[in-house]
Amino acid sequence: MRNRHLKSLLNVLIVSLLFLSNISFADNSKVLNVYNWTGYMPEKVIQLFEKKTGITIHYSTFTSNEILYAKLKTSPNSGYDLIVPSADFVDKMRRQGMLLRIDHKKIPNLKYLNPDLLNKPFDPHNHYSIPYLWGTTGIIVNTRYYSKNSITSWKQLWQHRFRNKLLLLNSAQPVFGMALHALGYSINTRNPKQIKEAYEKLLKLIPNIKLYDSAATQTFFMDGDAVIGMSFNGDAFLAHQGNPKIVYIYPKDRALGWIDNLAIPKNAPHLKNVYTFINFLLQPKIAKMISMAAGYSSPNLAAIKLMPKNYRDSNILNPSAKILRNIEFEADVGKANILYQKYFEMLKLQG
Amino acid sequence: MKTNILFRRISINIIWLWIGLFSLLPLLLVFVTSFLSQGTNQFISYHFSLHSYAQLFSPLFLEVFARSLCFAIVTTLCCLVIAYPFAFILARLKTNLKPLLLLLVIIPFWTSSLLRSYAVVILLEANGPLNSLLIHWHIIDKPLQLLYTNFAVVIGLVYSLLPFMIMPLYANIEKLDQRLIDAARDLGANQSTVFAKVVLPLTMPGILSGILLVLLPAMTMFYIPDLLGGAKSLLLGNLIKMQYLAARNWPMGSAVSIGLTVLMGGILLIYWRFTSRRDRQALV
Amino acid sequence: MSRLFKSSYILLIYCFFYLPIAILMIYSFNNSTYSSLWHGFTWHWYVALFHDPSLLTILGHSLLLAFVAASCAALLGSLCAVILNYYKFKSKTTLYTSIFILIILPDLVMGISLLMLFYILHIALGFWTLLIAHITLCLPFVIVTVLGRLSDFDRNIFEAAKDLGASDMIIFLRILLPMLLPAIIAGWLLSFTLSLDDVIISFFVSGPSYQILPLYIYSMVRLGVNPEINALCSLMFIATLFIVAGSQLLLTKRR
Q1: Which of A182, A216, B283, B284 has its CA 20 to 30 A from that of A33?
Q2: CATH architecture of the domain with range C54-224
Q3: What is the b/e burial string over A267-277, where b = at least 16 CB atoms within 10 angstroms of the residue's CB?
Q4: What is this model's ipTM?
């Protein structure tokens, strides 16, 4: 009796294994492997594309550039066709030959993109990357507790009145970027002296730090667990929608800017499908859906025109040209990254 | 007879193949990596270096070790203090519902540990249920800052690891012979003497295995300190993760991993010294 | 200790265990996407859940992975335990030590070391790497559970079986496996739980084509937990309760 149970269990096992191997050897020409940030693409967009082209999308997500980079570096044949690295990682990956050169002729919809966001130093001719979503990092504050006009720059976050109040992003780059801007340096500096100075500046900020965000920034602010701090503009926009008292400020000593880009890794197995998909993503209608669902700014000018008024005219999402000029965009810092990380670890140890 | 030898040989080889290929070989890779140096374009450059180990003994890393150990010890003690009476009462209940009650301890742990930690976050929030309740009952008049403190981290760790303390304690206490306690009582011992001189020594193996099962994971859980502690204090788990990902310093991450494994091995060795062979089997 | 004190203490601990679960379930009805404060009641997330094919696919992936991993680990683990208990061979002590190393090895180190192995062997990350990692993760737990049970056995049964001419394989399949079944089931359940909940190891060894639930939840937490996940987990919790209640009923009936 028991023996028969075992046998049937084994049978189930073998069948399921066979079933699985079938999946992995299935017809590959109608497939596309997309690796994107969590929450960066609404389900609807994938469904629309699949319906329209008959191509099946394997969609998976990551939560940091480091993970994306580590995955691609350790298994170059992992099979991803389309990835979405941030500017600094585009820089690093293209220099290391990890990206494929993009043929612009195959993507007619490129014409919709905002020229102000193209040809940035991290990829001078956009040979390897196409802006997908972009944003800024600035100051977020709940005006119920602090008046908006009293906060205009990063420097002010060091003031005594913010003791044990600040929320900081949980990664070295924005935290040091803020300190470097407060000191008047570039956020992409590789100069060890300046980095050390920023670290020493941050040490003085410790009494003010309440937490590093480990979940979604907007939740902390909407629920009143944090009242002032640094935030991506998209999160600030969501928080502002939920509670108009929460506002976003572009600091005078320059906000930080970032661009997340579509890129094709070397060895991408489904090249033809990738171009179809990229072109599809750049359609104004689709780009609008993506930007509105993710809550981040679209580089697609035609898409912005299609958006409802509160998105289109939002200063948080679509800053004026004057503000845009006062934003410094992130780029690769090369070996200095080790230094940044070390100081960030030391900072956390003091806290 | 031939089939016996064949069966024996094949099964031993299968086990060795699996353990060798998928646990010893990878561990060896980590070990080797810890002696290499960090590459610029690749994660590793193949130059022998003791740099990572030298850094391991720098004040920065020693402090992380010490801090993690401290958190783990506090967590373990809390678990022990909470779990011992619980396991004791449960094991000595005179009902056939005991297996069910024990199962009820485990069931919550079939739900994602991450989501349960997140639920603890919701519970402790400034405007969350706990604070609202305390204010409603006029116990406090301003929300307490519970979240993003070391207190919250310990709560989260205790919550996640408590069953690992309860299980071995329960198994041990259930085997406790009531006649020994009765005998001690008959000989005139009072309650605290019975506990200190009879019950405690007899349940020591259970206590030790519980400590082992809680202390080790408490050192490396990285998402609980992040979620509940506001990622403010750097613990070992976070440090290793940061070394491998953010800093892209695989040799350093490997050295910390090896250091951690050696530390845990050390703890296990201490445990080994204090227990007899029979008790070790009680652990399993 | 008075009876009242005892029962209230037990009750208190159970409350501590179930309070977060209760909160999780309550918030699956919360009418707000990002906020974790109460914003009114809604069924919305349950409706959304059943119209979200990707989430259900991910759940399917996770269940399949956990099932296969737990089954393989149970088979391999019990074989290993039997070998350790009944045979004498040269590498036995080394095998014991290796298993203990496997037990104390932090999850994090295991995940990274496996990633390095797959990197060197050029194995693409995906279902198979996840499966290998999860089996390796679960293996020591099964071995330990089965060994515990084996040590209580009467060896004479096997001597008798041998005298009657049974080969080792027959003994393993016909006598040992059935007798060990409770322990194997316990090990299987433990493995299933571990596999379904593992974030740390999967984090390193997962690939593009095979997304699993714990990792999906992990990324959700950073983005603001979507109550849809709460809804999913509430349903899974209720399902487990039903399965447990059902099996309890069956067991008592059989008695």
Answers
A1: A216
A2: Orthogonal Bundle (1.10)
A3: ebbbeebbbbb
A4: 0.84
